Amino acid sequence: MSRVKASKHELKRQRDALARFQRYLPTLRLKQQQLQVELRRVEAQVEELSEAEAAVRRDLAAWIDVWAEPQPLTSFLRLEAVHLGEMSVAGVTVPSFEGSEWRRRPPPLDATPSWVDEAIDTLERLATLRLERRVASEQRDRLADELRVTSQRVNLFEKVKIPEAESALRVIRIALGDMQAAEVVRAKLAKAKTSELESAL
Prior knowledge:
single chain; alpha+beta; Helix Hairpins; 13% strand
């Protein structure tokens, strides 16, 4: 802590600063708690989407051998658009997955095996899950960054700013008290000298 001036102006400045820190700290703590809750929720969502993706892959394993037969699946299914929105979570703007648009071209019935329709459905479901998981991962990353910054601010206020202001107030009050006591002593000495001089005359 830097050296503080022992003045009434500095006393008021430090008192105002302490009041400001104490007023903001509960808001920061609340934001920190909200971010922790939301981060846990989004982490669970990412895990859930990862598990859903793994389940689709396990389902694919049952009939993966037919995929060895080359088929131009991407010519039957193409991603046209991904719709993303924005939402505010505990004061943090994060992306939200609104949906995706796929262009499907029906495979020719006479030139493709019967499993191609199901393969196209599975491919679309798997790709959509991946897109959702990426957006949820972005949400998680942004919330984690904001939680880190908010936690640093809470620690700054709790461990640095508030103790510094309290210490400065204590030092200023002691110094002002000492100055006031010294003024009283000087006044008494001056009065005693004046009385002494008057009695000598």
